[in-house]
Design brief:
Length: about 140
Amino acid sequence: MSDPFIQTADPFMQTGNAEAIKFDTPGQITTLTVRRVEQKIDTQPDGTVKTWANGDPMHVFIFHGTVDGEERTLWVRGNMVTAIREAVVAAKLPSVVDTNLTLKFTEFGTPSQKGFSPPKLFKAKVEKAAPLQTAAFANDEEPF
């Protein structure tokens, strides 16, 4: 586990790659304390950029945070985006950062086209979490 205090938007201070949360089984529930969100252009496993029908690139949101004190990432796309946005609005919060995000993989949906995999459907709940506190030097400690 890396230092939980180094959860910042500063790329220099970001730690290595945290294990991604995977949802494999309907009924699975996971709570992530979200500390940072980044947006990237989404790609296929071979590195090809995913695009919409009009040619615009698709994006994926990567939530960085902790699950049970361990660093984790959550790759948010598809139906998960809608579930989380609705939960943030329902909680009357301005952001998903510094929240406890609980996601439940409820079921597989109906594929949009023949030959496509069924989409994963989710329910989400968002609650405000305490902001991350940084450690300070004790009064009797030398700063260097």
